[in-house]
Amino acid sequence: MSYKKNIILLGATGSIGQSSLRLIRKNKDKFKLLGVSAHNNVKLLSQIVNEFDVPNVVLSNPKNAIDYFGKNELQLGPSNLIELAKINCDVVISGIIGMTGLHPAFAAINVGNDLAIANKETLVSAGKIFLDNSNNNRGKILPVDSEHSAIFQCLDQNNIANVDYITLTASGGPFLNTPLSEFKNIQIEDALKHPVWKMGKKISVDSATMFNKALEIIEASVLFGIESDKIEVVIHPEHIIHGLVHYKDGSIIANLGLPDMITPLSVAINWPSRLDLGIKKMSLSAISKLSFYEPDLKKFPGLKLGWDSLQNPLCSPIVLNASNEIAVDAFLNNKIKFTEIYNIVYESLNFYNPPTPQNIDDVIEIDKIARLTALDLIKRQN
């Protein structure tokens, strides 16, 4: 009987969680779901528990607990979410969006669990702290984002000195061909229409502003130990090439694949082995054309802040991330215009210049102040 990898899935009812379940469902001979969590969706959580007979179950927001009908006992609250991530397992998949995923992800790394992470915000805000703890506790950090998974697969980690630079690709989002003069009229429903990926509201808006790529620049620097001037971003609307590693001898290794989160997830939780996923095969002749463009920083000024936050000690990645979350939420609630998202983030970065955090508590405090700063800026302009 072959060994099954024990998986704990944080954020099981979200988009990453659902992709993870599709993968586990098709490979029940290879994976055992040891634990799951959700925040609000107790009905779907109950269905997951019953389907996979999950022994460890957490609902981080207790208010909907009365509607739970799973066969196994339900634990409630954020503290139990952290305890769930500490259970000894092969891989913890962190699919929790935003800073709420910080503590459980850190708990997983601290006990030596491998962490497959789809949460940009965690690595952007506390990347160095995570990497240091990962190295100390021998738990690996495995990227789930398609772009970082691509770099991970193409990068020779043992010979990092041979790398010249890396390229992250971006689809360009829904407004790639929209004139800048029309940006002031962008509505919520427009920003949520991503041309390639089906995602949640927050990350869809981040893709529309290209703040998602700014965060990915920081994430790539943290994950792979690469300086900001060695990270390039290229618009690639077809989104077939997900990332490229350029070596000093002139060779370039690229990762290609049809847009589907299943593949990077399978890489993260089964590396270095490969699963036969039985997914649609890619035909290069059917694609026929791949196009690439320089990003327009006048239309997407938020992208530049990714490089700035790595190069300028006064430009904090934590403030960038926190103020963007607040600004996106304000946009989704019709409190600010689409073009004002960048303004709020930029002003927050200029208003609040925190010291470099030394631990997770520092990160949480800086994040809190940054959010209050962004909220105050939004109130002032309304």
Report on this model:
It is built from 15 helices and eleven strands. It has a seven-stranded parallel β-sheet with strand order 4-3-2-1-5-6-7, with helices on both faces. The chain has 382 residues and is of the alpha/beta class. The protein is globular. It folds into three domains: 139 residues, Rossmann fold (3-Layer(aba) Sandwich), CATH 3.40.50; 168 residues, no CATH class; 71 residues, Orthogonal Bundle (Rna Polymerase Sigma Factor, Chain: A).
Structural features:
single chain, 382 residues, alpha/beta, Rossmann fold, Rna Polymerase Sigma Factor, Chain: A, seven-stranded parallel β-sheet, 15 helices, 43% helix, globular
Summarize the structure.
With 382 residues, the chain is of the alpha/beta class. Helices cover 43% and strands 15% of the residues. It has 15 helices and eleven strands.
Percent helix, as a range, is 40-55%
- Largest beta-sheet characterization: 7 strands, parallel
Total beta strand runs:
11
Head-to-tail CA distance between termini: 64 Å
> What number of structural domains do the residues give?
3
Q: Return residue spans where pLDDT drops below 50 for at least 5 consecutive residues.
A: none
| Continuous helix count | 15
Strand and helix map with partners:
Blueprint: E1 5-10, H1 15-26, E2 31-38, H2 42-52, E3 56-59, E4 74-76, H3 78-86, E5 91-94, H4 102-110, E6 114-117, H5 120-137, E7 141-143, H6 146-154, E8 163-170, H7 188-191, H8 201-209, H9 211-224, E9 231-235, E10 241-247, E11 252-256, H10 262-270, H11 284-287, H12 304-311, H13 317-332, H14 340-351, H15 360-381
Parallel strand pairs: 1-2, 1-5, 2-3, 3-4, 5-6, 6-7, 8-9
Antiparallel strand pairs: 8-10, 10-11
Helix pairs in contact: 3-4, 4-5, 5-9, 5-13, 6-10, 8-13, 9-12, 13-14, 13-15, 14-15
